[in-house]
Write a structure and sequence with these properties.
The complex is a heterotrimer. Chain A contains 11 helices and 13 strands. Chain A is α/β, with parallel strands linked by helices. Chain A folds into 2 domains: 215 residues, P-loop containing nucleotide triphosphate hydrolases (Rossmann fold, 3-Layer(aba) Sandwich), CATH 3.40.50; 63 residues, Alpha-Beta Plaits (2-Layer Sandwich). In chain A, strands 5-6-7-3-8-9 form a 6-stranded mixed sheet, with helices on both faces. In chain A, helix 4 crosses helix 5. Chain B is of the alpha/beta class. Chain B folds into 2 domains: 209 residues, P-loop containing nucleotide triphosphate hydrolases (Rossmann fold); 61 residues, Alpha-Beta Plaits (2-Layer Sandwich). Helices cover 33% and strands 26% of the residues of chain B. Chain B has 10 helices and 14 strands. In chain B, the strands form 3 sheets. In chain B, strands 6-7-8-3-9-10 form a 6-stranded mixed sheet, with helices on both faces. Chain B has a 4-stranded antiparallel sheet with strand order 2-1-4-5, covered by helices on one side. Chain C is an all-alpha fold. Chain C has one domain. Chain C is 74% helix and 0% strand. The longest helix of chain C is centred in the middle third of the chain and has 33 residues. About 2% of the residues of chain C have low confidence. The chains are: A alpha/beta, B alpha/beta, C mainly alpha. Chains in contact: A-B, B-C.
Chain lengths: 306, 302, 253
């Protein structure tokens, strides 16, 4: 479990992280979202004791990182896959990490196998593709079999198979009861991966909730209805006070109603349904809604023509 | 329009691209997908005349790239946002590009403005974040107001707002009648961006079709059904469709092999109330995994 | 003309070419100034004012090599070839800009050195540029810098890596050409035909025997006249450069 309490970081006059409090629960994948410059990296660095908070604290299983006895056995982190000496082999890189925390050499081979790098373990890391570096970084994070895992943009540079692999992998880690905190900009990916979300903007907490709640709270839920008697059904729904919009393909989009209610109304009057699908907003829509004014660079959708 | 015919590239004994033929149409965003090592980058480099094909050819609007007089006015391409001298300012980088194709300096300011980099135009590009470099790269592609655009992993390093921006931006470029060819590994993103797909594996064409068709062909459509009279409905469907319980706790049925409208008619004629009747489309990811199983480079152990 | 402007923007919009030019001028003129100020009272010859030009030459060759290798290092060569796919014309434009600039730096450094010597030397009676040979000693530096830059561009385009290109140029010019003289019997004969040795003959060659300052390099004893020496050096530079053009045209970017 990760706990931030009143966490604050100033760089000179800039406040990167501003009185931030949140918790990350074990057994769940928690997404850590925010626009550029929101303070995500700074927060992750403070969790790992790389940066010192100006005020407040962040605890891992109740202790600050610096007080952990064998940190790699408690926390595994992948912040930047490029933090590897390019002329060192993948195996040697993991070996010194393992040594530094009194982990057996055997564990190095295990994690190499886990991420599928056994065959290239002796090659120098500088020749790795971004995807392979990413796997090496993940191997490093897993070395100490830690209870808490931190990932920063873990799918960066991975191909579709790698992306699927790491999603399932993170969910597997959480299912084993570990705490998994993942920072990412890829919302469509996070919608599939994260059960909980911590969303920050300009260094402040915007929301902490489950992903489903987050989306439901800030997007409109509608129901899409197709029926051979769409006119009749539409009129009935309007009578009931729901907002009904007819789309070009003849389907109805109903706002303000649950699909159950619509189904009951249809059945009661013998209307045949061809579709009755609750439509949920996307994580992206919800995110844009909530972080609207805390983004750093705004590009205009200006005309491209000359 | 981009057209590849029998395109082949050997590096020594390795065959990176193998007799590849496809086309990308104007007015559409075409996604270019494939596992690592499938030959996507090599293909894009050949489209731009950076690598010479061993055999076959690829043309842009009917012409070989190397025969274009002022190529930036025909093709805008962003293969790697890091292809900028780190000590050169964003503005100087675009200036020399513009000058090389006789584009006016005014155009440099226009494209800087379009991507939102006007304020940092004089800063050295080496100090840019990946997201800003990406925007600079995109500015470069737009300089010559080209009819054909190529992007390789354009959302790399962008934040959510940037990702949304570039998706809408590519759609607008296509709506203006341009050919937009995008290579990416982010399938959930591509599912929202690309109307057409060119999928390759091990240098060979796996599929060229619309995104909707690609998913339809490779995955099975199912229908999610909830009803207060679920048992009755299950009996009626028995023998006509395959039924699986959904993993969800709300007790929904997942029905394979029949259309939603069929279930709807069946329910109505038997007086069964429906609380949900949602056709479930397969994901691009499922479809992609299904079709490229054979051709991935590194298999990670499960 | 357009492509010349392109290369000019590229060259002057980063800092390293400026540093190289300043260093080339500073080294050449600076060391000459120290020599002139400490000249022993005898009339300082023209050759004494220009013999530091080799320092500047090495620096300017590094600059020329960098003009190509940094394009490969940072991937801008791909943008260059994307913008001008025939490849040859941007490479030629680059050569024209770099070679002209190098010639200017060469002239500035040699006339700067000469002028400063005039001011600083106790006896500058021999420094007047009276003969065609005198003019060649000073103005010829511009030509040597130009040809050297062309050679370095060729090496840079062939090797594509900064470290590799710079080492090849410096190790060849500073080590190989001197060490080769130690090969028994044939060493001296080979050395006479080494490009940088020949180039220095163009600058120093054919002076009045009495005017050779000590340690100013070999007098003109080669097979070639001074202008023949320059022709030889320039031909080698041009050959390497043309080979590099052929390779760049064929090679995958």
């Amino acid at each position: 479990m990760i706990e931030a309490v009143g966490l604050t970081k100033r760089y000179g006059k800039t406040v990167a992280v501003d009185n931030l409090s949140f918790t990350v629960e074990p057994g769940r994948v928690t997404g850590f979202l925010g626009p550029n410059g929101a303070g995500k990296s700074t927060t992750m660095r403070m969790i790992l004791g790389l940066d010192r908070p100006s005020a407040g604290k962040v605890l891992i299983d109740g202790k600050p990182y610096a007080q952990l006895d064998r940190p790699l056995r408690t926390v595994g982190a992948l912040l930047d896959a490029k933090w590897v000496h390019p002329n060192r082999s993948a195996r040697a890189h993991l070996q010194w990490l393992a040594k530094s925390n009194g982990l057996p050499d055997r564990r190095v081979d295990e994690v190499l196998d886990l991420v599928g790098l056994t065959k290239v373990a002796k090659r120098r890391a500088g020749g790795f593709s971004l995807g392979m570096s990413q796997r090496l970084g993940i191997a490093g994070a897993l070395l100490g079999d830690p209870k808490v895992l931190l990932f920063d943009e873990p799918v960066n540079g991975l191909d579709p198979e790698g992306i699927l692999w790491i999603r399932q992998f993170m969910q597997g880690l959480a299912a084993e009861g570990r705490t998994v905190l993942v920072s990412s900009h890829l919302l469509s990916e996070m919608a599939l991966t994260a059960q909980d979300l911590v969303v920050i903007g300009r260094g402040k907490l915007i929301s902490q909730s489950s992903t489903t709640e987050f989306v439901e709270r800030s997007t409109e839920n509608t129901v899409r209805v197709r029926s051979p008697h769409a006119d009749k059904l539409g009129a009935m729904l309007v009578d009931k006070g729901f907002t009904v919009r007819e789309d070009t393909d003849g389907s109805l989009t109903v706002s303000g109603a649950q699909s159950d209610e619509i189904g009951d109304i249809a059945a009661a009057s013998g209307v045949v349904l061809h579709e009755l699908s609750p439509q949920r907003g996307s994580l992206e829509q919800a995110f844009m809604q909530l972080t609207g004014d805390s983004v750093e660079y705004h590009a205009e959708l200006a005309e491209t023509g000359k | 329009m981009i057209e590849a015919t029998g395109l082949t590239k050997h590096y020594g004994r390795t065959v990176a691209v193998d007799d590849l033929s496809f086309s990308a149409q104007p007015g559409r965003v075409t996604g270019f997908l494939g596992p690592n090592g499938a030959g996507k980058s090599t293909t894009m480099r050949m489209i731009l005349g950076l690598d010479a094909p061993t055999r076959g050819k690829v043309t842009v609007n009917g012409q070989d790239y190397r025969s274009l007089k002022q190529p930036l006015r025909v093709v805008g391409a962003l293969l790697d946002a890091k292809w900028v001298h780190p000590n050169r300012s964003a503005r100087a980088h675009l200036q020399w590009l513009a000058r090389s194709n006789r584009l006016p300096d005014r155009r440099v300011d226009e494209v800087l403005d379009m991507v939102g980099l006007t304020q940092v135009a004089k800063r050295r590009a080496g100090g840019f974040s990946l997201g800003m470099s990406q925007r600079l790269g995109i500015a470069g592609t737009l300089l010559g107001d080209p009819k054909v655009l190529l992007f390789d992993e354009p959302v790399n390093g962008l934040d959510p707002e940037g990702i949304l921006w570039i998706r809408q931006f590519m759609h607008r470029l296509a709506d203006e009648g341009r050919t937009v060819f995008v290579s990416s590994h982010l399938l959930s993103e591509m599912a929202q961006t690309a109307q057409d797909l060119v999928v390759i594996g091990r240098g060979k064409l796996i599929s060229q079709t619309s995104t909707a068709q690609f998913i339809k062909d490779a995955t099975e459509d199912t229908v999610r059904v909830r009803s207060p009279q679920l048992d009755r409905l299950r009996e009626l469907l028995d023998g006509r469709a395959r039924i699986a319980e959904a993993a969800a706790s709300d007790g929904a049925l997942v029905v394979h092999g029949v259309e939603a409208s069929f279930i709807g008619e069946l329910a109505a004629s038997n007086g069964i109330t429906l609380h949900e009747l949602s056709p479930q489309l397969g994901s691009l990811e499922e479809a992609f995994m299904q079709l490229t199983k054979e051709s991935v480079e590194y298999h990670a152990a499960e | 003309m357009t492509l010349l402007a392109v290369e000019r923007i590229k060259l002057f919009s980063t800092r390293s070419p400026w540093w190289c030019m300043l260093l080339a001028l500073g080294l050449t003129i600076g060391i000459t100034a120290i020599i002139a100020a400490n000249w022993d009272g005898s009339p300082m010859p023209v050759l004494g004012a220009v013999f530091t030009h080799t320092f500047g030459l090495y620096v300017i060759m590094v600059m020329a090599a960098l003009a190509v290798t940094t394009e490969y290092r940072f991937g801008t060569i791909k943008s260059t070839f994307q913008a001008v796919p025939d490849r040859i014309s941007p490479m030629i434009a680059k050569a024209v800009v770099v070679v002209l600039l190098s010639a200017l730096v060469g002239l500035a450094s040699s006339f700067g050195s000469w002028g400063l010597s005039w001011l600083l030397a106790e006896d500058n009676s021999d420094l007047a540029l009276t003969t065609a040979n005198d003019w060649r000693h000073v103005a010829g530096v511009g030509l040597v810098f130009a040809a050297g830059a062309l050679l370095a561009l060729g090496v840079g385009a062939l090797v594509r890596q900064t470290a590799g290109a710079v080492s090849i140029i410096l190790v060849f010019a500073l080590v190989v050409e001197s060490v080769i003289a130690f090969i028994p019997n044939i060493g001296d004969d080979i050395q006479k035909w080494m490009p940088f040795t020949v180039a220095s003959k163009f600058i120093f060659g054919d002076p009045d025997a009495s005017a050779i300052p000590e340690g100013a390099g070999p007098p003109a004893i080669g097979e070639l006249s001074p202008w023949g020496s320059f022709g030889y050096f320039a031909a080698i530079a041009l050959a390497i450069y043309i080979i590099s053009l052929v390779v760049v045209k064929r090679r995958d970017a």
